[in-house]
From TrEMBL:
Residues of the Serine hydroxymethyltransferase-like domain: 12-388
Uppermost EC category: transferase
Residue sites binding (6S)-5,6,7,8-tetrahydrofolate per the record: 125, 129-131, 249
Identification of the protein by name: Serine hydroxymethyltransferase
Cross-referenced PANTHER family: SERINE HYDROXYMETHYLTRANSFERASE, SERINE HYDROXYMETHYLTRANSFERASE 1
Similarity-based family: Belongs to the SHMT family.
Cofactor(s), by name: pyridoxal 5'-phosphate
Membrane-spanning parts: none
Subcellular compartments: Cytoplasm
Modified residues (N6-(pyridoxal phosphate)lysine): 234
Keyword terms: Amino-acid biosynthesis, Cytoplasm, One-carbon metabolism, Pyridoxal phosphate, Transferase
EC numbers, comma separated: 2.1.2.1
Site (Plays an important role in substrate specificity): 233
Length: 433
């Protein structure tokens, strides 16, 4: 009889108590504090089981049925399931589920669609784009010729007129849309029209919102893009990793760009976990979560506005909001640190045309996938907004501020205590110490 041999926490404690301690402490951190990082959510126990499996041992360079190693029968089944499920979920023509991360997926997409030196038009990092959209600190800005479009100063929404003007002036090989801190819907049809006008490929980096597309809470970019890249670990709630969807005629180019161009052996435990996540994302429960995530983001954003934080673009259509703190006289860096002391994890974030350097920033970014996975709804969002308001304005260098942060931390404990992300057996947890 075959049995599953999976994570054995007692063995880890015996062999390596220091790392066992890290794992226990991280469970506690995730359970006992509020997770508002927009790019995080909670994976299911089934995803974690696949990640902690012996598939991690297997080398499988190549693709199902065409590997460079023997013994790939089982991992082939896992990858075929992951691909079939991704195709069904996103109604796509081709899927590659091997990228190790969103950055790896983007590297492969560039390699498939452009040559070094080609012009690439993408959203600038200070306006909500990603490092791989042309930053000089990444391959994308060093090996390609990036042209950045921005948001309009008045609306803080993508300036589509500027996108078209830049496309006509620079004739890019590749146009990219998709962002890491943009709270509005993106007009994929308009981007398609601009790309067609100048004969460019259109790539949508859907890393942040692909989970919401899977849950039918946001429109899909798949019908409009030549290539869609994404991550499986954000709102999608799968393992850390990347993925690529594309039109059938680009399939071979994408596959060759992932392996052997950009990567070696795929992480088959992660590929299996992606298959699990795609299956979960097709359920009515997941759709409920995805739609509630958006409703929660709106409620949280409105609550924060009532606390004196100005929402960039005036609100949100997706899972995140960016808040400008200048009217409160607090920097993003200080707000992040104060919230951390109060048990609230969020991140500082530049606002459009920010006079501060990125390490300081004038704003913060919040997201609702994690708290929604925990079962929280609009009422909790309003309470959390008020706690953030108290934390951000509490100066920890004064006795009153330090006391206020302690009070907020106690209330955070009450909220998260009622919505445990991983309802582990308390005794089991205590015994594992
Ligand atoms: N690091 C991710 C984020 O937080 O948005 C993007 O890659």
């Amino acid at each position: 009889m075959s049995t599953f041999w999976g994570p054995d926490f007692a063995a880890l404690e015996r062999e390596d108590p220091e790392i066992a301690d890290v794992l226990v402490d991280e469970v506690a951190r995730q359970r006992d504090t509020l997770q508002l990082i927009a790019s995080e959510s909670f994976t299911s126990p089934a995803v974690l089981a696949a990640l902690g499996s012996t598939l991690a041992n297997k080398y499988a360079e190549g693709y199902p049925g065409q590997r460079y190693y023997g013994g790939c029968g089982q991992v082939d089944r896992a990858e075929r399931l992951a691909v079939e499920r991704a195709l069904d979920l996103f109604v796509a023509e081709h899927a590659n589920v091997q990228p190790h991360s969103g950055t790896s997926a983007n590297l492969a997409a560039y390699a498939a669609l452009a040559e070094p030196g080609d012009v690439v038009l993408a959203m600038g990092l200070p306006h909500g784009g990603h490092l791989t959209h042309g930053s000089k600190a990444s391959f994308s800005g060093k090996w390609f010729h990036p042209i950045a479009y921005r948001v309009a100063p008045e609306t803080e929404e993508i300036d589509y007129d500027e996108v078209r003007d830049l496309a006509l002036a620079h004739r890019p090989k590749l146009i990219i849309c998709g962002a890491t801190s943009y709270p509005r819907l993106i007009d994929f049809a308009l981007f398609r029209e601009i790309a067609d006008q100048v004969g460019a490929y259109l790539m949508v980096d859907a890393a942040h919102f692909i989970g919401l597309v899977a849950g039918r809470a946001l429109p899909s970019p798949v019908p409009f893009a030549d290539v869609v890249t994404g991550t499986t670990h954000k709102a999608l709630r799968g393992p850390r990793g990347g993925m690529i969807l594309c039109r059938a005629e680009l399939a071979q180019r994408i596959d060759k760009a992932v392996f052997p161009f950009a990567q070696g052996g795929p992480m088959m435990h992660a590929v299996a976990a992606k298959a699990v996540a795609f299956r979960e994302a097709g359920t009515p429960d997941f759709r409920g979560y995805a739609n509630q995530t958006v409703r929660n983001a709106r409620a949280l954003c409105a609550g924060l506005a009532a606390e004196g934080m100005r929402p960039v673009t005036g609100g949100t259509d997706n899972h995140l909001a960016v808040l400008d703190l200048r009217e409160l006289g607090v920097t993003g860096r200080d707000a992040e640190a104060r919230c951390a002391r109060a048990g609230i994890a969020l991140n500082k974030n530049p606002v459009p045309y920010d006079p501060e350097r990125p390490a300081v920033a004038s704003g913060v970014r919040v997201g609702t996938p994690s708290v929604t996975s925990q079962g929280m709804r609009e009422g909790e969002m309003r309470r959390i907004a008020s706690l953030i308001g108290r934390a951000v304005t509490a100066d920890p260098d004064t006795a009153a501020g330090a006391a206020a942060l302690r009070d907020v931390a106690l209330e955070v404990g009450e909220i998260v205590g009622a919505f445990p992300p991983y309802p582990l057996d308390a005794e089991l947890l205590a015994n594992s110490r």
